[in-house]
Design brief:
The chain is α/β, with parallel strands linked by helices. The protein is 54% helix and 10% strand.
Length: 450
């Protein structure tokens, strides 16, 4: 968690316990200490649940403040869900606290104080933590992409103030300082207090650049390759900037044996748990699918798994019978082949309950790249470089693209999907999987699946 997000978390902590103290003063003015001791432990559990809810709802993403309406709407939804969970928790533990009155008053106070505190923190952080001055070293094509992205996303915390091109450029009305002579880099970096150098090339290609950058080491400047910078701000890799050496450097580390053992154990245990939780609603799903459209209840389809091996994926059917009578095709937004019940099952991810069987037998993981069909796999492998690398790990029920409700309808979409998946394969760990699962749970609650 970055410094800004940590500051926001501390602010939430202050508002939460401040609201609790204010609630006790209002509700029990004559005996504050006794009622504080009575409430704070159980409310601390609620705070942890609230933090996870905020996290899954993207309320710790730094661009949330740009849309106050969205912030207000998300906060109300999260608080409504947590209010319901809190009442259940209070009754479950049979506490001496009066759930309805106390929780209603506390929730009102917290929500009332939370929104102003978030807006205040957003303004304060923007003032006290200004954007880092950055210099871009490389060609114009990559400079234009990066500078446009940073202009549209100021919350990333970077601002390009200079461009050191490798060729003659014409930036038009772009007001950024152009430094064609790389021998002048050191002087510019030191005089203008530049904090970051983003490079799309190997500085060893020019004697002037490597000399200037070497001399600037005492300036405590952060040096980032374009690949690293792109990954940090987008949570995906750039296929345009990759070569074979990137894969050797980042993926050829041998199997993460302990991590894979832990992941397999986690997959097995959680799949059994989720299967037990969802079992009571399975009969209702079966009936709904059966009576609303003709055809089988379950949908089986061949997909490509780890090491390129095919397997059969199992889902509840969400499309009309013979949906692909004209041949294989990608699903699209508002796909007319999706039935009414199927649309609901897709939005809530309930159609994927049978895939827990795929996880139990080891064909899939809970988190991983989206499994592709062989018919599309052959075509995409020819058109997209390094596409087969995604088969280094097991495909997942959910993953980087699934939590973004990512639709793959063109080769360009598949290319972008691969960028997310390569980022996951490179950086995967237990906590990343947990983060993706939490965001998937949030999607289920707001019915945002596809």
């Amino acid at each position: 968690m970055g410094l800004k997000k940590f500051a926001i978390l501390l602010s939430d902590l202050f508002v939460f316990y401040g609201s609790l103290a204010l609630f006790i003063v209002i509700r029990y003015p004559s005996d504050f200490l006794y009622n504080w001791n009575l409430h704070y432990k159980l409310f601390s559990i609620l705070f942890l649940i609230l933090i996870f809810s905020f996290y899954a709802s993207d309320l710790y993403e730094l661009d949330y403040w740009r849309n106050k309406t969205d912030l207000f709407s998300k906060t109300l939804k999260v608080m409504a869900i947590n209010f319901t969970l809190a009442i259940t928790l209070f009754y479950f533990f049979q506490t001496p606290i009066a759930p309805k009155t106390n929780l209603f008053l506390f929730t009102f106070l917290f929500t009332f104080l939370f929104l102003p505190s978030r807006l205040f923190m957003a303004k304060a952080l923007k003032l006290t933590l200004p954007s880092k001055k950055a210099l871009f070293l490389g060609n114009e094509k990559y400079y234009q992409k990066v500078s446009e992205f940073l202009r549209n996303n100021p919350h990333t915390g970077y601002k390009i103030v200079a461009f050191a091109p490798t060729e003659k450029v014409n930036l038009g009305k772009d007001r950024v300082k152009v430094i064609p002579d790389h021998g002048q880099l050191f002087d510019f970096l030191s005089k203008n207090k530049v904090k970051v150098v983003i490079s799309s090339l190997n500085p060893h290609l020019t004697k002037e650049s490597v000399s200037s950058l070497y001399n600037s080491i005492p300036l405590n400047i952060e040096f980032l390759s374009l690949n690293r910078f792109y990954e940090d701000i987008n949570s995906k890799v750039s296929l345009d900037a990759l070569d074979e050496f990137w894969f050797l450097e980042n993926l050829a580390k041998g199997e993460k044996k302990i991590q894979e053992i832990v992941k397999r154990g986690f997959d097995f245990f959680v799949s059994l748990l989720l299967g037990t939780v969802f079992l009571p609603i399975v009969p209702f799903i079966i009936i709904a699918v059966k009576i609303t459209s003709p055809g089988p209840i379950l949908f089986k389809q061949t997909r490509v798994g780890i090491s390129g091996k095919n397997f059969k994926i199992i889902k509840f059917r969400t499309m009309v019978k013979n949906a692909e009578k004209n041949g294989p095709q990608w699903a699209e937004p508002n796909d007319p082949r999706v039935t009414g019940v199927g649309g609901f099952l897709r939005r809530t991810h309930l159609d994927e309950i049978p895939q827990l069987l795929n996880v139990l037998v080891g064909n899939m993981s809970l988190v991983g790249p989206r499994p592709e069909r062989p018919e599309f796999e052959e075509k995409l492998s020819k058109e997209i470089p390094f596409y087969s690398i995604r088969h280094l790990v097991k495909p997942g029920i959910t993953g980087m693209t699934q939590i973004r409700s990512f639709y793959e309808t063109t080769t360009d979409d598949a290319r972008e999907k691969l960028e997310y998946e390569l980022y996951y394969i490179k950086n995967r760990n237990f906590f990343m999987d947990l983060k993706i699962i939490l965001k998937t749970v949030h999607q289920i609650f707001k019915a945002a699946g596809r």
